[in-house]
Write a structure and sequence with these properties.
By secondary structure, the protein is α+β, with helices and mostly antiparallel strands. The protein is built from 4 helices and 7 strands; from the N terminus they run ββββββααβαα. The chain is 27% helix and 22% strand. This is DDHD domain-containing protein.
């Protein structure tokens, strides 16, 4: 699937200009600050819903945007440790090309 990328300054959103707008084939992302980033659908139904809700006084972000977050909700502490490993699975990529399927099934049954 081919994605198209365009970078541009977006129109005003609630009195704030988007610093950057990143256009994809079916969506676009608006950066308003380092912590305020929204993903919008460019489908016709989403555009209609966004227009109607904005005319009713709602912001573009609150009416149709999905806020994107980066990082974790809680910071890690020194006491945090990864959970105990209980299973390890080894997968050999391309093994089907080396052996036929019948022999693999016979050998693992």
């Amino acid at each position: 699937m081919q994605e198209n990328f365009d970078l541009e300054v977006s129109k005003s959103l609630d009195g704030k200009d988007a610093i950057y707008s990143f256009k994809l084939s079916r969506n676009h992302v608006d950066w308003h600050s380092m912590d305020e980033v929204y993903l919008y659908s460019d489908a016709t139904t989403s555009k209609i819903a966004r227009t109607v809700t904005q005319k009713l006084g709602f912001s573009k972000a609150s009416s149709s945007g999905t806020r994107l977050h980066r990082g974790y909700v809680e910071e890690a502490t020194v006491e945090d440790k990864p959970s105990q490993t209980t299973h390890i699975v080894f997968v050999v990529h391309g093994i089907g090309q080396k052996m036929d399927q019948g022999r693999i099934i016979k050998n693992t049954a």
